[in-house]
Amino acid sequence: MREKQTIRVTLLLSFLVLVTKGKGIRKKYYGEDNTLVLPYQQVNKTIQMKGGDVYDYIDVNAQPSLSDPRLKDHKIQMQPSSFPVGLDIDPLLSHSELQVQPSTIDCPVGTVPILRNNRNFTMAAHNIEGVGSTDLQREAAGIQYHGDVYGARASLNVYEPKVNKDSKDLSATWLQIKNGGEHRDKIGVGLEVNPSFSGDTFVRFHIGWADGLYKKSCIDHSCRGFVLVNHGWGLGTRLKLVSVYDGPQWELKVNIFKDPITKNWWVLCGKMNSPIGYWPSALFTFINHKGDYVFWGGFVQGPTVSSNAPQMGSGHFASEGFGKAAHIRNIQILNENNSYITPEENFDYGTTNSTLYTVDKFHVDTAGMSIYYGGPGSAV
Ligand SMILES: *[C@@H]1O[C@H](CO)[C@@H](O)[C@H](O)[C@H]1NC(C)=O
Ligand SMILES: *[C@@H]1O[C@H](CO)[C@@H](O)[C@H](O)[C@H]1NC(C)=O
Ligand SMILES: *[C@@H]1O[C@H](CO)[C@@H](O)[C@H](O)[C@H]1NC(C)=O
Ligand SMILES: *[C@@H]1O[C@H](CO)[C@@H](O)[C@H](O)[C@H]1NC(C)=O
Q1: Cβ–Cβ under 8 Å, residues 219 and 128
Q2: Which of 223, 257, 318, 342 could form a disulfide with 372 if both were Cys (CB 3.0 to 4.6 A apart)?
Q3: Origin, by domain of life (predicted)?
C-alpha cells in the first residue's frame, strides 16, 4: 500500500457543548419488539454533543442489555480476562482519542453512555446484516475467509458514502464473524451511514449481530444483549473526522475477539484497542466457541439497492487507489493460540456486482492483508 500521505490513525468525536444533570429525566428504551422496557431507567447524567447527539449516562450495572432473560445471572466483565498476544492496549479509562468527552468533563466512573435515539427501531432492528442474507437486496465488496477463527481485526478507512436520506438503504464498512452454517450467528462492527436507523446521513460507529436460532438481527441497543463497559464511547457515535477524496485520510481500528476464559466476544476499538464492550456468550447458539467465516469490506443493503444503489466506501472505484478509493488494511484473524495471523489460504476477495462496486490492489505485508473497495453505486 502506498503511504506517502500520512495516515493518521485516529478518531475524534463531536465535542461536548452542554452538560446537564439527567436527574428525573424519564427515559424510554425499546426492546426487540418495540416494546417499552425499563421506562424509568435511572440516568445519572445527560450530555449533548455539538451536532445534537444526546447521551444518557447509565449505571453500567443498570444498562438495558442486562434485562435480556438470557443474561439473568450474568456477571459483568469490565475488562477481558486477557488480550490477544502482542496487542497494544490502552486501559479502559485512559484519555485516548476514543474519548467521547474531553478530559475536562467529569463523566461518572461506573456509567456507560447510551445514545438517545428517538427513531422508530422496528425496521432498523432488522436491517443490519453482513453478507449472506437473502431477504434484502444487497451488494458487497471485500475479502472473505473460511476457517476457524477466534477473532479478527482491521483498520477501516473512514468515509461517509452518500445514501439517500429518505431511503431505507444503508452503506457500511464492516468486519463480521459468523458461525453456524445456514442458520448463522453473526457478530459485526464497523461504520455505517444508515438514515433509517440514525435519522441522518452521518457516518457512525455501530455494532450489529444476528441470532441464528431466532433469526433476529440487531444494531447497537435495538435489542438487548451487547454489554457496554467503556464510559467514554457509545454505540452509534458519530465519527467527526471523515476522509476527504484526494485529501486527509482517517482510519479506525476495529477488533473482535473471544475471551478465552469467559467465551464472551469482545469489541476493541481505536488506536490503542480500547475495550468497548462485549456480546455475552449466552446470547448465541452457534458462535459460542469460535467463528468459521469472516468478512471485511463494504456492503450496501436496502429496498432500493437494485434500482438506486448508494455509494460504497469513498464513492469511487477501487482502482483509484490510496486517498481516493476507500481501503481496509491490517486485515488479520486470531488463531486458536490467541495470536494474530495473516491467512495464507481459504480466503478470496471480490464483489457481487462489478458495475456498481469494485475491489482492487489486494496486497499482503507484515501488517496483514489490505484491499481497496467501493464505488459510486447507481450514480455511475
Ligand atoms: C447513579 O445514580 C444512582 C441513583 O442516584 C446511584 O445509586 C448510583 O450509584 C449512580 N451510579 C453511578 C455509577 O454514579
Ligand atoms: C414503527 O414503524 C412501524 C412500521 O413502519 C409501525 O408499524 C409502528 O407503528 C411504528 N411504531 C412507532 C412507535 O412509531
Ligand atoms: C497452537 O499451539 C499448539 C501447542 O503449542 C500447537 O500444537 C498448534 O499447532 C498451535 N496452533 C496454531 C494454529 O498455531
Ligand atoms: C449489476 O448492477 C447493474 C445496475 O444495477 C445491473 O444492470 C446488472 O444487472 C447487475 N449485475 C449483476 C450481475 O447483478
Answers
A1: yes
A2: 318
A3: Eukaryota
Span 248-261, average pLDDT = 93
DSSP-assigned beta bridge partners for residue 155: 253, 329
Q: What is the pLDDT of residues 156-188, one digit of tens each?
A: 999 999 999 998 899 999 999 999 877 789 999
Question: Which residue puts its alpha carbon closest to atom 13 of ligand 1?
Answer: 110
Average of per-residue pLDDT across 326-343:
96
**Rounded to an integer, what distance in angstroms lies between the CA atom of residue 39 and that of residue 257?**
33
For ligand 1, the distance from its centroid to the CA atom of residue 330, given in whole angstroms, is 40
Q: 46-55 pLDDT, tens per residue?
A: 888 777 788 8
Using the mean position of ligand 2's atoms as its centre, give its distance from the Cα of residue 126 in Å. 13
Is residue 98 in contact with ligand 4, taking CB distance under 6 Å? Answer: no
Residue among 207, 164, 163 nearest 188 (CA)? 207
Ordered DSSP codes for 285-313: SSSSS-EEEEEEEEEEESTTTTTSPPPBT
Q: Are 375 and 311 in contact (CB under 8 A)?
A: yes
Closest residue by CA, ligand 3 atom 9 = 337
**21, 38, 42, best to mutate for ligand 1 pocket (most atoms within 8 Å of CB):** 42
Ligand 1 atom 11 nearest Cα: 59
Residue pair 334/154 in contact by the 8 Å Cβ criterion = no
Q: Is the pLDDT of residue 107 over 70?
A: no
Q: Which of 306, 352, 353, 354 to mutate to test the pocket of ligand 4 (most atoms within 8 A of CB)?
A: 353
Q: Whose CA is nearest to atom 2 of ligand 3?
A: 337
E strand or H helix that includes residue 247: none
Instruction: Sketch the domain layout of the chain as residue ranges.
Output: 136-379
CA proximity to 275, closest of 285, 286, 284, 264:
264
Fold for domain 136-379? Jelly Rolls (2.60.120)
Alpha carbon distance 219, 86 (integer Å): 30
pTM (2 decimals)? Answer: 0.82
